[in-house]
From TrEMBL:
The keyword Nuclease does not apply. SUPFAM superfamilies: LigB-like (SSF53213). It comes from Paraburkholderia sacchari. Keywords: Coiled coil. It comes from the Bacteria. This is Protocatechuate 3,4-dioxygenase. Residues 64-91 form a coiled coil. One of its GO terms (molecular function) is ferrous iron binding.
Length: 332
């Protein structure tokens, strides 16, 4: 039988594919133009309103020196997580991530989907001489030289779809991509940053965290995570299986209280606390916390071993991303 032996979590923010100088200077030009801001209660707001309510020491929190320190902390955390994934010696990795009108559109946008093609494509980067640093950074989740077709554990993915449907989950099933499509950023980031040279089959579990009106509740995310754990352990093949949650934590306004509360709940395996999170708080980028809720519940049989959290402030309005990286204790 398959064994769930390892678990991981990682933010996939554009901050993690940028250069140090982009953190220190670039976002101060970009963030004031972002239309997707919500305050800590989940109410729509603007950059200007956030700037008005920022604490008096906000400017001191986003000096070039402070930003450089955070950049180094995030880079070190990703390097550590990459080594932990490699050391787990997995046969398959379920990656739980969101889709932001990459494979789906609002014309047809399922709450949950699982990809079960034999491979999944990541595209070659396309750039132009005059593109902005921000546009260039977005392409860094793609391939430098040519398209890459990453392996998928297709038979297990198909089995999970069938068994989840038997448990009354309505799972969209994907056995391939359209000609112009490639895997979304939640998955391509994981391949590029953590899985290079591993030849590790994945199972993409795709969640509509971002786009109303059919975002799953935290309670439903707990239910899906629990079902995935039970089904992984019931899969009739001798495999070492891992689960990785991709995305989050709070953004595009950093909410340290929310982020640290989530990390504390993960440590104590408090599924009820996570299930009771107010969906109103999970808007815009913070919606990706749903990916963590699913992954965390799937990993409930393991103990959280290692966490790094970087409060990724990048403007005096305290916009940015709560960057989180985690690993559960790996079983022999």
């Amino acid at each position: 039988m398959a064994r769930l032996v390892a678990g991981f979590g990682s933010s996939h923010s554009i901050m993690l594919v940028c250069q140090r100088e982009d953190w220190q200077h670039g976002f101060k030009q970009v963030d004031p133009k972002n239309p997707h801001y919500f305050d800590r209660l989940g109410n729509p707001t603007t950059y200007e309103e956030l700037l008005k309510i920022a604490p008096a020491d906000a400017e001191a929190m986003v000096t070039a020196g402070k930003m450089g320190e955070r950049y180094d902390q995030a880079e070190a955390a990703m390097d550590e997580l990459r080594e932990r994934i490699r050391a787990a010696k997995l046969d398959v990795l379920l990656v739980v991530g969101d889709d932001q009108t990459e494979l789906f559109r609002t014309t047809n946008n399922p709450a949950f989907a699982i990809y079960y093609g034999e491979t999944i494509r990541n595209a070659k980067r396309v750039s132009s001489p005059n593109e902005s640093w921000y546009a260039k950074a977005r392409t860094m989740r793609q391939e430098p030289d040519a398209d890459v077709h990453y392996p998928v554990k297709a038979d297990m993915a198909r089995w999970l779809i069938r068994e989840l449907c038997n448990r009354d989950f309505d799972i969209a099933a994907m056995d391939g991509l359209e000609r112009d499509q490639y895997e979304g950023h939640a998955f391509s980031f994981i391949h590029r940053r953590y899985l290079q040279d591993l030849d590790l089959p994945v199972i993409p579990v795709i969640v509509n965290t971002f786009d109303p009106p059919n975002q799953p509740t935290p309670r439903r995310c707990i239910q899906l995570g629990r079902a995935l754990r039970e089904l992984i352990e019931a899969y009739p093949e001798n495999l070492r299986v891992g689960v990785l949650a991709s995305g989050g934590l709070s953004h595009f306004v950093v909410d340290e209280e929310l982020d640290l509360g989530i990390i504390a709940a993960i440590r104590r395996k408090d599924s009820d606390w996570l299930a009771a999170l107010d969906p109103k708080q999970l808007q815009a980028g913070s919606s990706e916390i749903r990916n963590w809720i699913i992954g965390v519940e799937a990993l409930n049989s393991l103990d959280l071993e290692w966490v790094r959290y970087v409060a990724g402030y990048r403007t005096a309005a305290l916009t940015g991303t709560g960057l989180a990286f985690a690993a559960w204790h790996t079983l022999d």
